[in-house]
Design brief:
three-stranded antiparallel beta sheet, globular, about 10% strand
Length: about 375
């Protein structure tokens, strides 16, 4: 059976160079980075070299990179500590953030009584920047703005520079989940006035279980996990040396090949989009994912012309045909609820139709996309008969 993996927004295939380097580290550099003997010093050197490389790529200081288990922990660390330790009384966010943000914001509201405001969304799901500025001027309470850079379901791109400038102007802290952007876009965090970001290695062909938080110097963030003094006292626990090195290799390769890889994936997305429009009447592209200038080049979220009573078997059929895609974020796969993102941007009529997210990588081909379009067309033609 043909196998086609189009769920790269959920996780990516490791680059062979990453696998090989991680295997070397696991075999040869197994010391604890906190130990003072030669084995520990060797491991510590690898961790700090990775930290410096990542910091250099993002134009920040190495002290501002704190290694975590991934994006979810980094999001939780920033938002929870802002409320618990930095006297934040108000959070401004949207209804289409990743659940790693949605749930910790809800928790802070319930536990600490923090006030939560939601930025209005335009019809396509883009935040209304004028409404954001209005919200920022309405209160003198210490405020945290949390808006993701690229939406993981519909691919909308935030004007992160504009939001950062607004937050700086109104003396608000700014947190942005950058899980879908780092490794796919140039990011100069030294120039963007953002205080906290979250990054996950497995979104750019690195290993799962590792990521980092960018924490701007002087913010005073306190640890979420207590224990040892690792990661400058911000994140306790023995560092996962092989994962950190794997993330470093993946990130350096992502940016070394960025121009070529981005052009290739952009071409795949545009080809897929044109083939879907040509072969399937009534197909729609959710959010701004069909707009190449205002969405990420890495994904396409499509609403298919299919009645609700015929939609249940679609994802199952795709899987039977060897096609891996998603009906929303992979983080929601254990939930029977529909996408909280699509609920915000689709009409009731379109919410009754199936929507699928296809996300691309350098390992995909046009031949694979032709196969997927054919499977979709056959399914939709079949339910008409």
């Amino acid at each position: 059976m043909k196998q086609v993996y189009l769920d790269n927004a959920a996780t990516t295939q490791l680059r062979p160079e990453v696998v090989n380097r991680m295997a070397e580290v696991m075999s040869d550099n197994y010391g604890n980075p906190s130990s003072t003997h030669s084995y520990g010093r060797s491991a510590k050197s690898l961790v700090e070299t990775a930290r410096k490389n990542i910091a250099k790529q993002l134009n920040v200081s190495a002290a501002e990179i704190i290694f975590t288990s991934g994006g979810t922990e980094a999001d939780n660390l920033a938002i929870h500590s802002c409320v618990r330790d930095l006297d934040v009384k108000r959070i401004i966010t949207t209804g289409i953030e990743h659940h790693a943000v949605v749930y910790i914001v809800d928790y802070c509201k319930e536990k600490y009584g923090v006030h939560v405001d939601h930025v209005q969304l335009q019809e396509c799901g883009t935040p209304d920047y004028l409404h954001l500025e209005k919200l920022l001027t309405e209160s003198d309470q210490k405020t945290l703005v949390s808006l993701m850079h690229i939406n993981n379901e519909i691919g909308n791109r935030l004007d992160i520079d504009r939001v950062g400038a607004l937050c700086k102007k109104h003396d608000a802290l700014f947190h942005s989940d950058c899980v879908q952007s780092v490794g796919h876009y140039e990011m100069d965090l030294g120039a963007i006035p953002v205080d906290f970001t979250a990054v996950s290695a497995h979104k750019f062909h690195g290993p799962k279980g590792v990521g980092f938080a960018f924490i701007r110097k002087g913010t005073g963030l306190k640890p979420l996990i207590l224990g040892g003094s690792q990661e400058r006292g911000i994140r306790a626990g023995t560092e996962s040396v092989h994962n950190i090195v794997g993330m470093d290799v993946a990130m350096q390769m992502a940016y070394e090949h960025l121009e070529k890889d981005r052009a290739y994936i952009k071409e795949l997305k545009e080809y897929f989009k044109s083939e879907l429009k040509a072969k399937i009447d009534g197909i729609k592209f959710n959010g701004k994912c069909g707009d190449s200038d205002n969405s990420t080049y890495t994904l396409l979220n499509v609403c298919l012309p299919c009645p609700a009573d015929k939609a249940a078997m679609l994802l199952f059929t795709m899987d039977l045909k060897g096609i891996a895609c998603s009906k929303g974020s992979a983080c929601q796969s254990g939930s029977q609820k529909g996408s909280h993102v699509l609920t915000q941007v689709l009409s009731d009529e379109d919410m009754d139709k199936p929507s699928l997210r296809f996300s691309f990588s350098i390992y995909n081909t046009k031949e694979e996309l032709d196969y997927v379009v054919g499977v979709l067309k056959d399914y939709l033609d079949g339910i008409k008969n």
